[in-house]
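Quick entry, no commentary yet.
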Amino acid sequence: MQKINLSFNKTIAENKKCFIIAEAGVNHNGSISIAKKLIDIASQSGADAVKFQTFFADEIILEKAPKARYHIETTGNNEKLSWYELLKSQEISLKMHKEIIAYCKKRKVIFLSTPYDMKSVDLLNNLGIEMFKIASTDLNNHQLLEYISKKKKPVILSTAMSNYDEVEKSYKILKKFLKNKFVLMQCTGSYPAPLKDANLKVIQSFKDKFKCLVGYSDHVMDDAAIIAALGVGISVYEKHITVSKNLPGPDHRASLEKKEFKQLVKKIRNVEAALGDGKKRVMPCEVKNRDKLRKFLVASKNIPSGKILKSDDITAKRTGGTGLQASNYFDVINKKSWKSFKKNEPIIK
């Protein structure tokens, strides 16, 4: 079985409890205080990990690169706050990384971060990160994928804004260096994303085609998406969190506040409990009802001993558990009655 073991006795595996990542991302707005509040939300809500983003703006963007549409919608399109300047304000220093990691350990939640450049990969690796998350924006960045994969640590790769051929090329890099220690995440790269574009059947397609662990990175502001994803069977789930949707920044509007996220985690665990393990059996709550509601064989008329039992001699009724189960019909029909039975008497061997 494909399995990734992590700290705090956490495991990512097929047909196991979904590994839940609270995506803090850049919603700390450069503040260690807000970062710690995000970690608190993750821990108090029951998430397994909290994930930030690690980058050096100079390494990942040109100073005059145009903003994405949702950045314009959330932060405006003015020269005073270019995308480059926005990213500079969201960088996490080495000191801040160390403080965040220490606080995650204190709160018993796994620290994760997405590196967007090779310098950031080295920074995180030197800090002892146990697993890398690669953003959808770098799915086609084969240089970075190879660099991360050579660190021989588990990888989670999001696949938004891509087609199957692009995913397959990235999959081959991960497979080459990591064997089975990686997860492919279905994701839709819009913030928020329309429910109709969630395309959750891709999860099963990934399972069938790649035979690997699969998860869902959720930007849909509707619980229907995660419930459906759980039904298909995901091993990892990721959702953005924020201290407040009213804070300035590009990702707050597509994030959940503490109360919402806590309710979502509870709903995920309830859905998982309802899904069960796939093994059909009599459930504990059914045991008392089984004999009372099921039917048992009874005589439909007086039957003398030694009579060849025919269909009109026997019927099935509720007896409260006395007699042969109705499923024994073919075991007794056309056989000699071993004793006499009165009408409506349970057929007992």
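second:
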Amino acid sequence: RDRVEVGLGGRLDATNVLHAEVAVVTSIDLDHADYLGSDPAGIAREKAGIIAEGATVVIGDVRDGPRREIFASAERRAARVVAFGEAVTATEIREAAAGIEFRYRSGDRPAGLWIVSPLRGAHQAVNVALAVAAVDAFTTGVPGGTLVPGEVVTAAVAGVCWPGRFQVESPGPMGGATHVYDIAHNPAAAAILSGLLERALDRGELRRPAVLLSAVLGDKDWRAVLGPLLAVADDAVLTDAPSAPSGRRWDLQAAATELSRRGSLTVEPDFERALVRADELAGEGTVVVTGSCYTVGDALRLRRDASG
């Protein structure tokens, strides 16, 4: 069986030619607003377009108007709803440098599972819970299907590796900065990242100075993305990601002019020189690379090439 990730919205996405037995809607945020609009309920309606007739839909911590839209779409398609906070819960969440731990419970697993994940941030408990719920819905939704044994589930979750999501790379033997890579590219993800950074810095897991290295796409709300991150960072370097589509690159100078009011920053259009400058500013502290998948991907590629 296959897992397919929707690229944009849902109702009109190319992946919707498939009849998915299980659909998952993790969250609703103002992303791709130029295509999906700026109304959360309308975005939820577009995303709910992936729900197939008679399927199961697993939904995350979605509330109010968006939640009602998804439930209404499921009802029209005679789909079963498995909702976080109702049929699925994550409690006793503990966040630490090594990841998260929490108690998972669902209608399929009333006794619960104690889950340990290397993913960082309490918000990841919701994502892991949804993944487990989706697997359970899939395996029990076929004739003769049974639940995956609990020990298999917990072992699988413990072995998860998700590059570009608060990926922390320690300095090499010659010292230097710790690097954090996170593809946060919308306001919600940036707010989560800023909170993770602040807590890690306060606990001494990451060291100051914390330097932000960022390139955001021009069709994103870069003000809302960078605002909370600049509030945590001691310095910033703004640049352009080489692999970003030319038609979607941000106006670097305009961004620098506006954001310079919020704190110290350097503008370096050349990506490689920007990375070097961020390392210089951070010293033995922390460089946070973020803003888009392109930004993080280009930085990781350069790091890999430099290490041979």
